[in-house]
Amino acid sequence: MPPRVRFDRDAVLRAALSVAREEGLGAVTARAVAKALGASTAPVSAAFDGMPALVHALVVHLAERLRASVDDAAGGDPLQGGALAFARFARDEPRLYEALFLVPHEVPPDWVGLRRSFAAGLEAVPRYAALSPRARDALAWRATVVAHGLGVEVWSGRLSRVDDAALRRLIAELVEPVVAAYLASRA
Fold first, then answer.
1. Which structural domain range is residue 158 located in?
2. Exposed/middle/buried for 90, CB within 10 Å: 0-12, 13-18, 19+?
3. DSSP summary character for residue 108
4. What region does 75 belong to: left with phi over 0, alpha with psi -120 to 50, or beta?
5. What is the pLDDT of residue 173?
6. DSSP 8-state assignment for residue 3
7. Of the residues 47, 67, 119, 164, which has the fewest C-beta atoms closer than 10 A?
8. Is the four-CA dihedral 62, 172, 169, 145 of positive or negative sign?
9. Residues near 52 by beta carbon (within 8 Å), at least 6 away in sequence
């Protein structure tokens, strides 16, 4: 008899991610995840203490993934790079963007940590260096509100162009005035 295949938490989480990517967060059930694994529901039950725990782990994973892409996209201006990461996430992974931002969560992910990803690195940019940590965080909050609005527009399909050049243009038109107004109010 061949050895039994064992599935660890990461394998179950990857299967849940696959289901969410294809069908949305609401489709992440023990049976759907088990089907994606090619197994019974036993590995799902063994890896997580119920479906709420699996869904929470999935949402945390999505937030971490977005945070990493925000950090990677920082470039010259972390606020514009972060906004681009949000918009790309909405464009490239619409079901996952929806799962992270557009459905209620029993236990929300670390929204403060995600926002602080926007603030990370601002002190190294001359334009923002004079701001206090609290002011940088407040500015990052404003930028994430605008970035999320753009993300929803991308996710919904209401924009005719969502290539990187179009997204960068929109970010310059939408994020820059918010940043400029905030900096002017602090001067």
1. 67-186
2. buried
3. -
4. left
5. 95
6. P
7. 164
8. positive
9. 106, 107
